[in-house]
Structure formats: structure tokens, C-alpha cells
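Reviewer comment 2.1 asked that we show a complete input and output for one of the modelled complexes. We chose the 4'-deoxy-4'-aminopyridoxal-5'-phosphate case, as it is the one discussed in the main text.
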Amino acid sequence: MKNFDFKPLLRKNIQALRPYSSARDEFSAEGSYLFFDANENALGSVGLSEAFNRYPDPYQKQVKTLIAAQQNVDVEQVFLGNGSDEAIDLLFRAFCEPKQDKALIMPPTYGMYSVSASINDVETVKVSLTENYQPDVESVIHTVKNDPSIKLIFLCSPNNPTGNLLNEENIISILENCNAIVVVDEAYIDFSPDQTILRYLNDYPNLVVLQTFSKAWGLANLRLGKAFASTGIISIFNNIKPPYNVNGYTQKAAIQALNAVEQKDNFIKKIIEERENLILELEKLSIVKQVYPSDANFLLVKMTRNATDIYNQLIKDQVVLRNRSTVHLCENCLRITIGTKTENAFLIKQLLRLL
Ligand code: PMP
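Response of the prediction step:
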């Protein structure tokens, strides 16, 4: 196990924080109690037949119990948030002193790391991925060793927008050699052949793994993201999150989803099949220069003609892609999420019309 203590890395105000204690923190139990403690509306919910008048479980214990069992971790190693975007924000609020501490990101990568950093008035240090979209490990380690104000390192595997997994040895090497919190964002891990990095959670106390219900589980609208880390780091997240950050409807839906794992696995299988079909179809088109290999539910595609023109033309046909053509190392690229068989066929038809 790596020798690492997260506490000295915490912001001073978080080290000193006395967390809020909600009504449901102070008393929660199953059974027929009369609740006079949380200033809720005892009469019901306006306009709805289902009752939403009581605050939800602030720590989502039932959902976490199912997740912990499926992922083979302790319940106390799981945090749930309003999307994994909430966990990204909490990492900055816990570890980065505004105007003083920094986060290291590896472009091209998910845009919220730097936006969340800016919102928290935290500088980002950028170490570009290599040409084949892998971390420049030596440069990352060198940069972190020379700048103790770097508290967070963000890795995204499979990476958005490039779609590829990061080599596990690279991630381990960064975990081993950096005295900072290493965040591995696995939003798209379910679509990849590799295992999650979660099995190293007990070896690396500086590891935080992010996952989400928004992709493979198909629950993007309900906003539910997961963070896995040491029990110490998770209890800090619990202390600084808003008291009832995951609503009761979402918790109920997540429990149903977690009890229907076969359907998720079936979705994944179908999406991967469609991904492989779409690659073959795209590679036939003369406007496509390169389809990058993908371990995710989207493809990064380099065009031979101006990508922005193609993007705009498709919008007129009511087909919306993600224009990544101005992103570092993604010049003239579009990002395409895998749709249904019919949707993908329509996209190819519209692209053929542009030839
Ligand atoms: N991480 C990555 C890499 C993403 O692409 C996204 C969403 N596109 C997120 C995190 C955020 O996901 P959510 O907040 O829906 O859990």
C-alpha cells in the first residue's frame, strides 16, 4: 500500500470545518414515526399523486449498499452526487485553495475539469497527451514533483473526446510517483474491454475513481454520479456536499436499475455492436480521413473536408454531432455518439448526401 495521507492536502477551511447536521442526520429510522423535525409539508405534494414531501436519505444508503456489493468495495468508500460533475466540483472545494493550489489536466480531455477549476478560482497546469492520446508520464511526474501546489491530477479513461483507454501501467506509475490526489474518471469504462481501476483502491490512498449512471445505465436525466475513494476522503465529501444532494426519485430509480444489471449489459453489448458497424460505414466515406479506435460509446472522426461545414450542414438535416475541430490534437474532428441502428443508418445517409 502506498504511503500517503490526504489530510495535509486538504484546504485549511475544510480541515477546520464543522459540518452541517441535517434533521435526517440527527434522526433516521425505518418505521411509523411522526416527523416534526424537518419543516416539511405534512399534507403532501402539490399537483402530484406520488408523495415527494419528505426529504430523501442524505447518504443514499440503500443505493450505496447495492453499488458496494456489485463493485466489491466498502459502502464507506462510495460517494453519490448530482452527476459525477458534482464530485469533480467537490474535489476542488476539498483540496484546492483558490488562487494558490493547482490541478493538472491532460488535454485533449473532458472540458469540465478546467471549467470547474476556473469556477473555484484554481489554475490548471496542462501536460498534453501524446500523439496517440496516452499520458506523457515522465512529464506529468516531473511537473508534479516540481510544483507542490498541484493537488489534483485528472485522468480520463476511456478519454473524452478521443475515446481510448489510458494504459493501466501509465495510471499506476502516476499514482505511485505523485504526492497528489489522482482522479481517474471512468464515465465510459462500461464500454471498454478493460477492467475498472477500482481494484487498486485499497493499494493507493491517493486514488479517486469517478463513474456515472449517465452512460451505460441510461439515466443521464436523473443525475447520479459515483466517486470511490478511501473512507477518509469519502467522509470529507459527505461533510461538504449539500445535505440532500441526490433526490429520492433518483435513489428509487437507481435501486431498480441496479437490480436489472442484465439489461445494462445488454445495452452495452448492443451499443458496442453498433459502434463497430458505424466504424465500418464511416470508413467507407471519402469525407472521413480517420476513425479513431474507441473504447467508449462515441467515435472521434477526422474529416477530409472542413469539419465545421459538415457539422453545420448536418444541423440543417436535424442531425447534431459534437464539433471538436478546434480542440488540441483533434483538429478537424467531429465526435459522434453511437445511436440506435436506425439513427446511425440515417446519419450515414445524410453524410453520403454531402459527398
Ligand atoms: N466525465 C466525463 C468524461 C464525461 O464525459 C461526463 C459527461 N459527458 C461526465 C464526467 C459527467 O457525467 P455526469 O455528470 O452526467 O455523471
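Residues 83-85, 110, 156, 160, 185, 187, 212, 214, 220, 225 surround 4'-deoxy-4'-aminopyridoxal-5'-phosphate (CB under 6 Å). We note this here for comparison with the apo prediction described in Section 3.2.
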